[in-house]
Each structure stands twice: as C-alpha cells, then as structure tokens.
Automatic annotation (TrEMBL), chains A, C:
It comes from freshwater metagenome. Its cofactor is thiamine diphosphate. This is Unannotated protein. The lineage of its organism: unclassified sequences, metagenomes, ecological metagenomes. InterPro entries: THDP-binding, Transketo_C/PFOR_II, Transketolase-like_Pyr-bd, Transketolase_C. Residues 41-214 form the Transketolase-like pyrimidine-binding domain.
Automatic annotation (TrEMBL), chains B, D:
Transmembrane segments: none annotated. PANTHER family: 2-OXOISOVALERATE DEHYDROGENASE SUBUNIT ALPHA, MITOCHONDRIAL. This is Unannotated protein. InterPro entries: Alpha-ketoacid_DH_E1_comp (IPR050771), DH_E1 (IPR001017), THDP-binding (IPR029061). The keyword Nucleotide-binding does not apply. The keyword Nucleotide-binding does not apply. It comes from freshwater metagenome. Residues 1-41, 343-388 are annotated as: Disordered. One of its GO terms (biological process) is branched-chain amino acid catabolic process. Pfam families: E1_dh. One of its GO terms (molecular function) is oxidoreductase activity, acting on the aldehyde or oxo group of donors, disulfide as acceptor. Residues 56-341 form the Dehydrogenase E1 component domain.
C-alpha cells in the first residue's frame, strides 16, 4: 500500500478543479522552515505535524481526548505535543465522548479552538448527540460559531472487527452544520487538518487508520493548508472513479490497470462541502462514473454522489451510475471475511471494465 | 431593564424564619429546606431587593401574557412557563457578574434572561416567530439566548448545555479569567448520561461552574420517585463537589447560595451543585393540563408562592409594590405591541448562515444588577447577530 | 390533510408489488372482532390499537419510555395501555434514551419484546450508540436475536423547530441490522407496527407526528399486519413519484393535479428492507422518477433510492433522477421559514411538471 | 471443563489475614482493602478451592499462550489479557447459578468464560479468526460470549453491556425468575454516560443485577486520578445501592462478596456495586508496552499475584498444584492444536445472517461449578448458532 501511496503522489495530474488546489500559505512558516520545503512523512506524522504547527501558530488551539496526553494517543497522533505544550493544551480526558465533544463546543464558544479525538471513529456514536444537535446546529440557530475539530480514526482493513472499522462519515453528512473531511495522502492530511483547525465551524476529520503508517509522501513543512475541494489524481477521458480516504489508493491502483488516459480518478477530500462542480465536470466529460465507498452502501457518501450525478449530469451519461461499497453488514474481524466485504482494487477494476464496455 | 441599584446599607441577612420548616423527604409533598445558607451572606440593599421582586414579577407577567398569546393562537408551536419557580432563575442569575455566562437558561428560566438584560421585545418577537435578533425565527419558545449578554441559548436535549457550560468554564480556567459559567436544569435532567459526564468533568477538574438544579418534583408527568433513588444534591458528593439544598421559592436564599457557589468557583475550588426545591405549578407546557398532579399538593405550594411571599416582605420594608407591577406591565405592553408589529422573517433567508464565515465574536457582557458588583467597566466587542 | 388521507385510501390501485400487499392475518382476532371488520381511526389511534392488540396477543410485549405510563405518552400513543396492562408492561422511565434502548436490548435478549418510545425522534441521537452498535450489530455478530421496536415520533410541519422536527431515518438506514419503517396511513401504521413487534429484529418505527391526528382512515380491527414492502398508491405511466411518511400525502396531492394515469405514486412504507423490485419495476415502466424526502437532502433515503435507480434502471430512464428534499439546514421554527424548507405539494407538482416535459 | 466439585466439609471462612493491610487511598500505589466481607460467608470445599485455582491458572495459561500466538503473528488484530486480575472474573462467576447470565465478560474476564464452561477450542478458534460457533470469525479477541452458556458477548463501547444487563435483569424481575445478571467493567468505564443511566435504572428499580467493577488503576494510559474524583464503590450510594470494596487479588473474597450480592439481588433488594481493586500488570493490550506505568508499582503488586498466593495457600491445604497446572496445560495444548487445524471461515458467508428470521432461542444455562449449588437439573433448549 505504501507503494500505492507513492503511485498516488506520482500520479497527480492537472485535471478539472486542479487550479483550485495546492498550498494556500506558501510563505516561511512559524517554525522557520523555508517556504516550499518538504519532508517525507507518513500520513500519521503529517497529522501530528499539522497539530504541532497549528498549536504553535495559535495559542487558542488545544487538544483533548482519551490518552492523548503523555501517552500520545492510541495511534500516537499526538505524540510529543504534551511535552511541548503541557497539560492545559493537551488534555487527557475521562472516557466520555459526549463530554469530550460537548466541552469542546463550550470551549469553542468561549474562544478556544479545541481539536478533540475520539479514540476510534466507531465510538462517535456515544457522543453523537452533542455533535449533531449541539455543535452542528449552533451557528444556524444562534449565530454563534463553534470552531472545533473532531478527529476520527476510521476505517478497516486490519482485522479491527465490527467496532473498530467503521466509516461513519455519512451520518455526519446527513447532519446539517458539520463539515466533513477525509484525506487520502499525507500532504492532504496535514493541509486539510490545518485548514479544519482554522475553519470557524465544527469539522469532522476522518483519518483513515489503515493509511496511518502505510502511506508516505512529501509534506510541506511549516504552515500548510488545503482548500475543501476535490482533486483529480489521475486524468482520464472515458470513466471517472470517485473515491476518498483509503479507497482512493485502491482506485488509483485499479485505474493503472487500464491504458493511461482512459480512467480518471477524483479524490473527493471534502465530503461537506462536496465539490459538486468537480464531480460534475469530470463525469460530464467522461460520461461514465464509478463511485467507491468503504462505508456500508445504503445512504453512504457514494449514494449522495450518485444522486447528484444522476440528476445533474444525466444527459451526459453513457452508462449507469455504478457504485462499489461495503455491503450492509458490520465489518468482520477475520481477514478473509473482511476482504470479502471491503472493496478491493480487483473489484474496482472489474467494475470499471464493465462500465467501460457498457 | 433593571437599573443598577444604589448601594444602601441594608444587609438583610438570611434569617431562619424565611427557611420553611424542613422535611428531608423529597417533593412533591415535602416542603423544601434550606440546609446550607452560606455563613457570610452577601448584602442585598433595598434597591436590590426591589430589583429582585421586579424581575420575578417581570417573568411572571411575561409568561402570563405568553400563555394568553399562545391560547389566542398567536404563538406558533408551544409555550412553557416557570410559574412559581421565578425565585430560582432570578435569584441565581442575580448573583452573576457581567463577565459570567449562563449556559443555558432552561425551560423555566425566563427570569435569568431578564436579569441579564435581554431585550424583552426581542424575546417576544422570538416567541411569536417574528423576525428578531435572537433567533431570526429559526427557533421558538424557550430556545433562545442573547450572546451579547453572555447568554447561550438552550438546545432541547437534556442536559446538553450543562456539558457545554463545563467546557466554557474550562476555557475560563485555562485562561485564568475570573468568570464562572452557570447552568440550569430540572431534576429530570439529572438522569441522562450527559449529566454524569458533565458532573464528572466538572468535579474532577474543578471547573468554575455553578450548577443550578431546579427540583420541581416533576419531569413532564414523571415524579421524582420514578426518576431517581437519591436526590440530586446528595449525589454531588459522588463527583467530589458539594451539593446544597435551597428553598427554591425564596429568592434571597437562592441568591445567597449561588453567590457562595460563585465565590467558591472563583477561588478555584470547583463547582457546586445547588438543588433548588420547588414545585411545578402549571402543566409541562401550555398544552398540558397536568391532571396527573394532586390538586392538594398544588394548593399547599400555592401558599408558598415566591412572588406573593416576597411582595409581602418588601411591602413591609416600604417598597411600592404596585409601582413595581405597573412598571413591569407598561414595559410588557410596549414590548408586545412592538413585537406584534414586527413582520415574519423573510423566507428567502431560511437557509442562509449555516456556516460561520467570519472570525467568531466573543460573547458580550451581561447586566449584573446586584449592587455588590463594582461600577461596570466599559463594554468589550459586540456579539454576533444570530445566523449571520 | 385528512382529505388527502382519504384520497390516499381511495386511490389505492393495484400496481407493481400489489400482489404482495394486504393483511396477512385475516382470521378473527384476539379481541374477538370479526375478520374483515374495520373502524375509522386516526393514524395515532391506529398506533395505539396496534400496541393494544399485540400486547393482548403476546404477553412478552411491553412498552417503555418517558411518560408513556398513566400519562399515555407525550402524544397519547400509549393512552389506556397502563390501565389495561399495568406498570410492569407499560413502564415510565427516567429521561435516559440510552438506557431505554439498552435495557430494551437486554429485555429482548431475555425473551421479551419491548416497544420503546423516544419522546421525539430527534432525541434518538442521545441513545444512538445503543441502537447502532448494540442492537443493530447483535444478530450478525452473535446469532442472538433482538426483537424490539423503537417508536420515533418524527417529522415537521407544525413549528416544532430544530429539535422537534427531525426525520432521522437515513442514519438508521446507514447502520446495518436495523429495519426501518415509515407508514403514511392509519392502516399501515397499525399493520406495520404490529409486524414490527412480531419481527425478530430491532425495528425503527418512524411515526410522523404531523399525521397523528390529521390523517384518518379505515383500519382493520383485531390482528392486522402488513409486509415490509412498497405500495403503489396512484397508478401512472409517465412518471414515478417515490415518497413515504408525510410526503406521501403531498405526492398524492401533487399527482392529482395531472391527468389521471400519468403520474404514479409509490409509498415506500419500508426503508429497510427497501423494496427495490417495486421501485425499479415502476421506474422502468414510467422512465421518469421524482423522489421526495422530508429529511435533509444529503445522504437521505432519497439519495439511496436515486442511486439505486441510476444504476439499475438507467437504460429505462427518459430523464434525470430528480429529488426534492429539505435543504441541509435544521428545520426552522417560524411557520413561513419552515414552509420554505419542507417540500410542498406545489413544489412536488412543479418538479413533476418539469420532468414530464423533459 | 471443571468437574462439579464434591461437597466436602471445609468451610474456609475468609480470615482477616487474607485481607491485606488497608490504605484508603486509591490505586495505583495503594494496596486495596476488603471492607465488606459478608458476615455469612458461603462455604467453599477443598474441591471448590482447587477448582478456583484451576480456573485462574486456566485463564493465565490461556492468555500467555494467546500473547505468544499474537506475537507469532497467528492472531489477527489485537490481543488483550487480564494477567494479575484472574481472581476477579473467576471468583465472581463462580458465585453464579446456572440460570444466571453474564452480560458481559469484558476485556480482562477470560476466567468468567471458563467458569461458565465455554469450549476452549472454540475460544481459540475465535481469537485466531478461524471458523467457530461463537462468532463465525466475524468478531475477534475479547468480543465473544457463549449464549448456550448464558453468556452474552461484549461490544467495545464502554460500558454498553451494563445497560443491556440491567434490561436482562428487568426481564427476570418481571417474570419473577430467581436469576441475576452479572456485569463486568473496568473503573474507566464508569465515566461514560451509559454507566450512569444503567446505575440509575438498576438502583431505582432494584433490578437483580450484580455489578463488578474492576478497578485496576488504569484505563489504557489514564490513571484513576484523571478519571474521576471519587472511587466507584463510594459512588454507589448516589444510586441507592451498596458499594463494596474487595481485594481483587483474593479469589475467595471476590467470590464471597459476589455471592452476597447475588443473594441480595435474589431477595429483591436490588443491585450491589462491587469494586474489586487490583492492578493491571500488562499493557492495555499486547501491542502496549505500558512504559507509562511505574515499575516499582508493578513490582509491589507482583508480590500479590492472585495465583501465586492462592497456590501457596492450597499447597498448604494439600492440593496437588502441579497436577492442576498439568491438567490445564494438557487441555490448552489440545485446544490450540485443534484450533490451528481449523480452517478460516468461508468468505462466501460473510454477509449472511444479518437478520434473525426464526423465533429466538432462549439463552442456555451455564456451568455452575460451585458445590453450593444443588445438582444441576436437565438442560433446557439450546441457544442459537452465531449469525445463523
Ligand atoms: C434527552 C431528552 N429526552 C427527552 C426530552 C423531552 N423532555 C422535554 S422536557 C422533559 C421533562 C424535563 O423535566 P425536568 O428536567 O425535571 O425539567 P422541568 O420540566 O421540570 O423544568 C422531557 C422528558 C428532552 N428534552 N431531552
Ligand atoms: C465508549 C468508549 N470509548 C473509548 C473506548 C476505548 N477504550 C477501550 S478500553 C479503554 C480503557 C478501559 O479502561 P477500564 O474501563 O478501566 O478497563 P481496563 O482496560 O482497565 O480493564 C478505552 C478507553 C471504548 N472501548 N469505549
Ligand atoms: Mg422537573
Ligand atoms: Mg481499568
């Protein structure tokens, strides 16, 4: 998979929407690293780097969650932050997701910028109410901004089983007032997380656990933010594969099995706001679309993309709007079962082949 | 709305005779007992006391008008009132300084909004679904707060805003500010898990939060006997914080315990849970005839009406109670008239403002009418318009 | 609206899937009412009737929730049950949705059949974890059945504001292992609730508050169960309107504005399982589809229906897959604002007209 | 797995010397104290005591092998063990009758599965992701339970299964059955809101539930000082139920307090919260080297190992401890061999069984090896296959 990661980095080709991409802040950054400098980082390191850079830059930023302090978090995403910023800004909390989210809302209302971690994204269900009813609805109801980020280590692929493999993003998409981001590369993980921290709204940040240590890439040093838009990762004319998070890498791998220029791969990166223009522009050009979700199929993000395309790109479609997603069962533990359930590059390629032949 | 009271020597220490005969049993049925009057009671001038009365009368009068407007079909949705509980929001909010926040006044806490100085016309516009600065018609009934006055409006889910209040208090503590967050909720709201998580965070980290639990004996139709085994104040110890029972129909007692809880929080000693015992005198909302409540119980509590009692006391102390009522009524009439003349919000704007696009504006300072506060320093930056 | 209710009842026409409809249990019922007898009931009365009949029929059935006892529930859906069945089987609970749902799971595992009420569907977020992680995943993980029903008074249209108007069904659809029902008529409210109680799985039962007292209809007395399939309510050849719950009535009203036989209206009734065959059969025949959701648009039930149609009925489509739904904001309180946000018969008719002209 | 012990007169009343010197401070650091030995202690025969030892050794030996299999890469996902905590699940489950249910054994409670008689080979198959009757490979590590043995497996979300246990207990109460539900969780699991809701329902309605909180001083890396202000047992009073602190490293003490709690529940007096104090001796899971734990603390607790201590006692009483160990090892070797020879589940079946289509089968009866239970009556109907 790190090979796939490399492939993705190597394959970034200008396409629809590309003009809107890239680093917004290019000047020398808070930690003095020269503009334009990069370093190879894992996806996980990029997340830590974003937290560190933003915490240095803005003293209102604080981190809270279970075991995120001296221990550095279950996945070590906050490693080193406690030493640098101390117990006030890197807070271990009791096991209480509603309070983690709810006190973050309060801290945000009082002028801080909390970044809270749910140890596994699956546990967000225990704090769901604070997220959807308090954080999500606040600004529209009252005009009060809730600048906070909820970091959600999500996704499967490593025998995590039914409670450590979920991709809950569609729940958030169906809750007005929450932004939803899902990076696939280290540079995006950093840039989107930094941008989320600077955003004035509650942002659900889906970090894919299976990418944490398996994907490496060049990441800009110092300040680096990415806009909440899609990115064309592979350019093509005959079929658009829409993906995000871990699925993006499989989509790129699948696309590479076809002649160059046939299959386009679009990395959504942001699910709310959804870059409808980029999706429609690509599909209108290729005329065929395959949408890949790691989440359970029904009412997933991909359903929304499919509905969008089926409405607004209908007249340009040369074939059915196809989806590939996890079937509607919990994610199984035993690796063979898990592989049977999660989309694979093989299955993506097969679906692509079918569509191209339509 | 209430002018800053003049500092007059009129200490009015709480006297045992104002604490009614106690029964340790839980309401409904039991007459509450104030078991923790702070030893160093804060001073209330006669003007303060008049202000307290005026605020309670203001709440009662507003809510009576609200019920009428609702029954006339002018108020969409629902209407809730805190008839008989006025002493709690008024007494508690009166103990707050201008930088303190309330997060949030709940279903029976109209008086807290009045103490903070939220514009009455805006409140009525809000209730009527007219265009207004508090909610722009997006919210109704008790769901409002004026951020310009340091008040964050409630959500329905109980007691979510308590959790949020703990987070605000945490921010104050981290920034070493001398401020507290005060939160209100009913005794029924102690059952959801969110209550426990908030209590635990607050007690463990000694957050400067003042917790006012209004035990009015009922949660909708459910009596406390079907809600919990142990009254809220007794449960505070499980979180390492003091629990105080106060007569919720005694505005000065509520003021005194809240004042003490605030002082404690400002000292860095952490939260206090105040259980103000009272009785819900009306239905859950105006749609509810509360047939399930024993009329004898209501009758008994009617004799302890917080306004009637206080009015009698203040009349004895020389306050012109009729003038207070007249002032309140005049303001209310004007506000209702202005509100009724206000158009409905423009439907074209129904979906705007989902996202915050500008740098957030800090909460403003609330009115702090108690004479114990020094002359107010100048106002900081203004709070944002709702939904803009 | 009760006129619309009548219209719906009168307009039931045999169509695709109609063969699978109707009362499964037609024999004389537990309360001795003769087979085939009906009575006019409101949607709300039909719900109470279902509870009463099923509680008489099966002593394992019990009801629990806030104020559902002597008070009869916030909407009076359980009125009279406490008197008939007593405090053990009609239980008032503390305010604690997670415990209401979680203890229901436990009672179900121990052999009872709890029907629990969340006072307003919006509050389900506070018990979401027990629902999706414990109830929903149980059978697939362990083979243990969780026969329980979660009654969810849902929907807007009466100035309920952001916390009393929600339609959370898509969240459940995206959580494997939960059945999801959303009746639009009194007879279906009774028949689907009774069937839900007899089902061996956790069922989310979305009762639309705005229909409670505004829709009346003939309801079979005694035992009456309905299968979890869609029903063609109005037959037509040129356009299919897919709807459920309160929207069904608006769809029927809108369809009536066109010449008879042009617009078909399909009432989904069950969202999980989703009657894909009925949807596809209708759309393949009409070639045009409009999907109406009262819920917020993104990732709603309608998105799933749209995705389904765009994939599997693509070659039969004569026009784009259109949707009408609430925009992605909380539901406003002030009636004018609320009406601006919720779909109306006018807007449905307008969208239908556009599609027919495509 | 453990034969039904012969009823021998060997009362073995708990003696004060087995309760270690007490310090009222909270672990880590403090040696726990048993402050509530039931006055009428249940009798343990020598065979019972040997069974207790065998069960604890069985858990330890299994988990050591489990760690090895995990480190060899044969176990997918993760592995968790309860090294040093064996006395709690074994002692508590040993007090249960065959009709009682456990909902659920948690992350440190392998011993409870062994007491109930769950097939060891099936458990290992489950851990290895092989086809098995407990989970069909859909679940791994600690997520299993054998419904045929009256055990419902856990979910990850803490402490959700406590809430479920309260619901099961409610069903028992409503049907006037003489059964209890026993639930396990760690001290960290007392912070989520679900814990409070479950405690409130249980205490208020006096459900026949036995609540075993394993306070091992840590929740992942978080010490109790960052988890709560007041230890769990002291918080029980807030829910109208007794809280009992017991030495979690003393299997007979755990047995005795659980027995008393069960009796209390069966009498209709409601739940008891048992706080068993112990120390987590390993990392949170096998992936965690627990560098954050003070080695001196671990060293101190190592001297109080529940198995070593008990072994010494039983050796003195004439038990052939080496034979116990040999029996355990033999069974384990056979089970591991059988498990490793088992194929992976067929991927074709990965999505089946989402829905229950048949009439639910009641939970089966668990083994109840304590001699205090009368000879077991015949088995009722079997419980369902996982996912079928
Ligand atoms: C989480 C949640 N569940 C249910 C409700 C519905 N509800 C609104 S008010 C109320 C009763 C509240 O009782 P209490 O907290 O005692 O306040 P009171 O009305 O007596 O002032 C209930 C159950 C809610 N608001 N929030
Ligand atoms: C609701 C929830 N949040 C977070 C987690 C992640 N988690 C798994 S175990 C654990 C620590 C549990 O500590 P404790 O309850 O003391 O049990 P112990 O591991 O010490 O036996 C955490 C935080 C979880 N399982 N559930
Ligand atoms: Mg109350
Ligand atoms: Mg622990």
């Amino acid at each position: 998979m790190s090979a796939q990661g490399a492939e993705v980095r190597g394959a970034v080709v200008p396409g629809a929407g590309a003009a809107r991409q890239g680093t917004l802040v290019g000047a020398a950054s808070a930690d003095g690293s020269p503009a334009g400098a990069t370093r190879t980082m894992t996806y996980l390191q990029a997340i830590t780097d974003a937290l560190r850079v933003e915490m240095r830059r803005d003293e209102r930023v604080l981190v809270l969650g279970e075991d995120v302090g001296a221990f550095g978090g279950a996945f070590k995403a906050t490693e080193g932050l406690f030493d640098e910023f101390g117990a006030d800004r890197v807070q271990d909390t009791p096991i209480a997701e509603a309070a983690i989210i709810g006190t973050s809302v309060g801290a945000a209302l009082a002028g801080l910028r909390p970044v809270c971690e749910v140890q596994f994204a699956d546990f967000v269900a225990t704090g769901f109410d604070q997220l959807v009813n308090v954080a999500g609805k606040m600004h529209w109801r009252t005009g009060l901004a809730v600048p906070m980020v909820l970091r959600l280590p999500s996704g499967g692929g490593f025998a995590g089983g039914p409670f450590h493999s979920q991709n809950p993003e569609a729940w958030f998409m169906h809750a007005p007032g929450l932004k939803v981001l899902a990076p696939s590369t280290p540079a995006d993980a950093k840039g989107l997380l930094a941008a989320a921290i600077r955003d004035h709204n509650p942002v659900c940040f889906l970090e894919h656990k299976h990418l944490y240590r398996r994907v490496k890439g060049e990441v800009p040093l110092g300040e680096h933010v990415e806009p909440f838009v899609a990115r064309t990762v592979v350019a093509g004319d005959e079929l658009t594969i829409v993906a995000y998070g871990a699925m993006l890498h499989l989509a790129v791998e699948a696309a590479a099995r076809f002649e160059p220029g046939r299959v386009e791969v679009l990395d959504l990166r942001s699910l709310v706001p959804l870059d409808e223009d980029a999706i429609l522009a690509s599909v209108r050009r290729t005329g065929r679309v395959l949408i890949v979700d790691e989440a359970n199929e029904t009412c997933a993000a991909g359903a929304q993309v499919a509905a969008l395309v089926a409405d607004r790109a209908f007249s340009d479609l040369d074939g059915p709007v196809r989806r590939l997603a996890a079937p509607d069962v919990p994610i199984p533990f035993s690796p063979g079962l898990e592989e049977a359930v999660l989309p694979t590059a093989d299955r993506i390629a097969e679906a692509a082949r079918e569509l191209l032949a339509y | 709305m209430i002018g800053r009271a003049v500092l007059v020597e009129d200490p009015h220490p709480p006297t045992p005779d104002r604490a009614p005969d106690a029964a340790s049993e839980h309401p409904p049925g039991a007459v509450p007992r104030t078991d923790d009057r702070p030893s160093t009671a804060p001073r209330l001038t006669l003007a303060d006391r008049e202000a307290l009365l005026e605020l309670m009368v203001g709440m009662r009068t507003f809510e009576e008008r609200g019920v009428a407007l609702y029954k006339q079909g002018r108020t969409p949705g629902s209407f809730y009132d805190g008839h008989g509980q006025e002493a709690i929001p008024v007494g508690a909010a009166f103990a707050l300084g201008p930088d303190d926040v309330i997060c949030s006044p709940l279903i029976r806490d109209m008086g807290a909004h009045l103490v903070r100085g939220t514009d009455l016309t805006e409140i009525i516009r809000h209730h009527l679904g007219r265009d207004n600065r508090l909610s722009r018609g997006r919210e109704g009934n008790v769901h409002f707060g004026d951020p310009r006055k340091g008040v964050v409006g409630m959500v329905s889910m109980l007691p979510d805003m308590f959790v949020v209040a703990v987070g605000m208090a945490m921010a104050f503590r981290l920034r070493r500010e001398r401020r507290v967050a005060l939160t209100f909720f009913g005794e029924g709201a102690t059952s959801p898990g969110a209550w426990h998580e908030a209590m635990n965070f607050a007690g463990l980290r000694k957050e400067p939060v003042v917790i006012v639990c209004e035990n009015n004996g009922l949660a909708y139709s459910t009596p406390t006997s079907a809600q919990f085994a142990v009254p809220p104040a007794e449960r505070a110890a499980a979180y390492g914080m003091p629990g105080v029972v106060v007569d919720g129909n005694d505005v000065e007692a509520v003021f005194a315990v809240t004042h003490a809880a605030r002082e404690r929080a400002l000292r860095g000693d952490g939260p206090t849970l105040i259980e103000a015992r009272t009785m819900r005198m009306h239905g859950h909302g105006s749609h509810d005839d509360a047939r399930y409540v024993d009329p004898a119980l209501l009758e008994a509590w009617r004799g302890r009406d917080p306004i009637a009692t206080y009015e009698a006391t203040l009349r004895g102390a020389g306050v012109d109670v009729d003038a207070v009522r007249a002032r309140v009524l005049e303001r209310l009439d004007a506000a209702v008239e202005a509100a009724l003349a206000t158009p409905l919000p423009d439907p074209a704007g129904a979906t705007d403002g989902l996202w915050a696009t500008d740098e957030p504006v800090p909460l403003g300072r609330g009115d702090a009418p108690w004479s114990g506060f020094a002359p107010a320093p100048p106002e900081p930056a203004a709070a944002p318009e709702a939904g803009r």
